[in-house]
Specification:
There is one protein chain. The chain is of the alpha+beta class and 239 residues long. It contains 9 helices and 6 strands. The protein has 2 domains: 112 residues, no CATH class; 105 residues, Ankyrin repeat-containing domain (Serine Threonine Protein Phosphatase 5, Tetratricopeptide repeat, Alpha Horseshoe), CATH 1.25.40.20. The strands form 2 sheets. A 4-stranded antiparallel β-sheet has the order 4-3-5-6. It has a two-stranded antiparallel sheet with strand order 1-2. Helix 6 runs antiparallel to helix 7, helix 7 runs parallel beside helix 9 and helix 8 packs antiparallel against helix 9. Keywords: ANK repeat, Repeat.
Length: 239
């Protein structure tokens, strides 16, 4: 759905909610697919909208339970002390503070398009977790790259000179909090044989069991990824 440019501004910084995409982002990039709130652009890239410029897109969050329907840049909204509880602009309570199951619904507009009933609360919880434990963001990025088959990102993350060999091994074999999957699970279930081979060579454990007591080879078998299955079976025999 096309989004027609307007003169909307952010309620916190008063700058236009429209930004000019940099060369690393834009429609069709991997970040667009999940329609998650994007990180936003720097102030120097915010522009007055031009309907004829395809590289000008919104960076817009509108809270459903804010009576004033304030608009925010994603980073401006995120930088507020309690964006999951109060509207950052008018400080009106937007969900009950003692209700852990309440949804924080918003309309999100960004380079991926528009989503009208996006629950922001899980994203905010994750962002706060990443802020207190930055290594978890790296782990999440690695799992995502393994699942999508982004070999360049996998290599970039694991070849970071700031990681010692023990830290690399720990990153490879740390399970996520959902299914207790390590990055190897994500590569195996998606059938990315080259990534599976690389992870194994870097020290990924093929015998790790998830919360369902399955190993990566079982998912590769279920999905019919014969080459991946051979790699995992061979690796399991030497561990």
């Amino acid at each position: 759905m096309a989004i027609v440019p307007d003169d909307t501004t952010c309620a916190l910084c008063s700058e236009p909610i429209w930004i000019r995409l940099g060369p690393e982002s834009g429609p069709g990039s991997d970040d667009d697919e999940d329609m998650l709130p994007q990180q936003g652009a720097s102030a120097s890239r915010r522009v007055v909208p031009d309907e004829d410029d395809e590289q000008v897109v919104p960076d817009d969050v509108v809270l459903h339970d804010c009576p004033a329907s304030h608009h925010f840049h994603w980073q401006c909204f995120l930088s507020h002390s309690e964006p999951e509880t109060y509207c950052p602009a008018c400080h009106v309570a937007i969900i009950p503070p003692d209700d852990d199951d309440a949804r924080l619904l918003a309309t999100i507009r960004n380079e991926g398009g528009q989503e009208d009933n996006f629950d922001l609360r899980p994203v905010l919880v994750e962002e706060r977790l990443f802020a207190t434990a930055p290594h978890l963001r790296t782990h999440a990025a690695l799992c995502s790259a393994c699942f999508t088959g982004d070999e360049a990102s996998v290599l970039d993350i694991l070849s970071n000179p700031s990681l010692s060999p023990p830290e690399t091994t720990h990153l490879l074999n740390t399970p996520d909090s959902d299914k207790h999957w390590t990055p190897l699970f994500y590569a195996a279930v998606a059938g990315h044989a080259d990534i599976v081979a690389f992870l194994l060579n870097q020290g990924a454990d093929p015998n790790h069991r998830d919360r369902f007591e399955h190993v990566p080879a079982e998912y590769a078998s279920e999905e019919g990824h014969a080459e991946v299955l051979d790699l995992l079976r061979g690796a399991r025999s030497v561990y």
